Amino acid sequence: MLEIRNLDRWFGPIHAVRGISLTVGRGEVLGFLGPNGAGKSTTMRMVTGFLPPTGGTAIVNGCDVTLDPIGVKRQIGYLPENAPVYGDLTVQHFLEFIARIRGYNKVEARSRIATAIDQCRLQKVAQQSIDTLSKGFRQRVCFAQAILHDPPLLIMDEPTDGLDPNQKHIVRQMIRAMSPNKAIVISTHILEEVEEICTRAVIIANGRVVANGTPAELKARSSQHGAVAFTLAGASTALTELQALPAAARVSQTDGRYVLIPRADASSRLVAEAGALIKQRNWPVTDLRVLEGRLDELFRELTLGEEQIRKSK
Amino acid sequence: MDWMRTTGALIRRELNAFFGSPVAYVFLIVFLMLTAFLTFGIGRYYENGQADLREVFFGLHPWVYLILVPAAAMRLWAEERRSGTIELLLTLPVTLTQAILGKFIAAWIFLLVALILTCPVVITTYYLGSPDTGMIIGGYFASFLLAGTYLSIGLLTSAMTRNQVISFVLALVFCLFLLLAGYPPVTEMFVRWAPANVVRVVSAFSFMPHFEAIQRGVIDLRNLVYFASVMVFMLFATFLVLNNRKAA
């Protein structure tokens, strides 16, 4: 559906996007993660034909954006950052304008607008001018604009940014409802959102892809994945003894809460070793659990670099 | 066909934006009152006792447009940039050329409407005397072309900034320069230090001689080419500016 090949972009002396390549298929919801300024929006703007790439290209259903931008734009529904819409128009008139630009005749435009208004739950405000609407509604108006032509590829730049929790929930529901027969790319820095709706996540930092996998795979890559944690009072020698375990990479202790970080691929061994040691010493351990990896941790590890993380700790 | 329909949709949207906002009506009222005041009040139309609109009516248009056309044009791109809708517009299946032409044609139609609404002045003239119809048609045509030329400049300055006030001031200065370029006090300023050829080239850029020629009813190809080429040049420059600085 969407194939991005070595996309590259310079802004004067700044190398904003450095050779990004990835593919998205039908039925996938790709979460595009990265800190501010990592190149998420720039990449999306190049894919949607707003900015010409300095190098590389994006191909949507066989259409190359550098050769046939109009052909690509016909197949994409795009929700730009901050959901820009023409505030002087009413919701109905705005969607009529979009329908005319998309080349629909009156009858078809009417039914498509009705469907989009229905899907985005805009019935109540259809005759209101967009300037009078709240941010959540404006976001949905822009969303309606993006799905009006039922595009095979939907690209959304921070679709839930600045919305309250209820509005976020509605937008996520709409995305999920839409996902089975479309390819969807959303950029976000809300990590819970990725776990909730994305089938795959890509993390980019400094204009490069640094991780690409399902949310579960990415979580497994975080160094905390498979860590053993428990609470133990007293036992003054525990820290040194735990550090001596062969499968433990690092052990930390704060207020009697111990966290054992496993060496690479040694998490099941760590559980066994720690269990045996606890039993042997007969420590009064409570609240023992094996931790799951966390996306936010991986995100920080990949986008900050090890040194800065250690400093911030 | 497809191309026309898309451009048509853009023109329609821009016209709606003009007539849907109070700005258009303020503009029309100010324009009509100003031209009427200048013609009848300052131009001493009645006292002249001549059924001739050249000096007292059409001759004033370059000055009236100087304020009003940049005001009508300043919103066109600056607002799209400020509000970010430019990203929405240019990711729809629309080429940049279509988007520029759509805005230009719509604003030109708006100025044409304003111009047509000045017809009471003409009707008064026919009622009082027997003016030269050819000259009136020539006057309107010249005025229409001049409005389009000012507009193309306003469109360019509007594309250069996201601030409407900056766009307005730049367009005003630019138009004023082209208006006065052939005017003796201005050319004399250049004569003192610039070579004669430069002075001639600068004064050749002026609107005035071309405007006056068409207004007299002399529709010479050279004059038409002048206006058309200024407009095409400005629209092309707009294209380049937007293409380079879309996201900025």
Describe the structure.
The complex is a heterodimer of chains A (313) and B (248). Chain A has 12 helices and 14 strands. Chain A has 313 residues and is of the alpha/beta class. Chain A has a 6-stranded mixed beta sheet with strand order 6-7-8-3-9-10, sandwiched between helices. In chain A, strands 2-1-4-5 form a 4-stranded antiparallel beta sheet, covered by helices on one side. In chain A, strands 12-13-11-14 form a 4-stranded antiparallel beta sheet. Chain A starts with a strand and ends with a helix. Chain B has 248 residues and is mainly alpha-helical. Chain B has one domain. Chain B is built from 14 helices and no strands. In chain B, helix 5 runs parallel beside helix 9 and helix 7 crosses helix 9. The mean pLDDT of chain B is 87. The interface between A and B is medium-sized, with 28 and 25 residues.
Shape, per Cα inertia axes of chain A: elongated
Q: Kindly identify the CATH topology of the largest domain in chain A.
A: Rossmann fold
Quickly count the domains of chain B: 1
Number of strands of chain A: 14
Low-confidence stretches of chain B: none
Shape of chain B: globular
Treating each run of at least 4 consecutive H or I residues as one helix, how many helices of chain B? Answer: 14
Spatial strand order of the main sheet of chain A: 6-7-8-3-9-10
Quaternary structure classification: heterodimer
β-strand percent of chain B reads under 5%
Question: What is the second-level CATH architecture of the largest domain in chain A?
Answer: 3-Layer(aba) Sandwich
Number of strands of chain B: 0
Largest interface: A-B, 28 and 25 residues
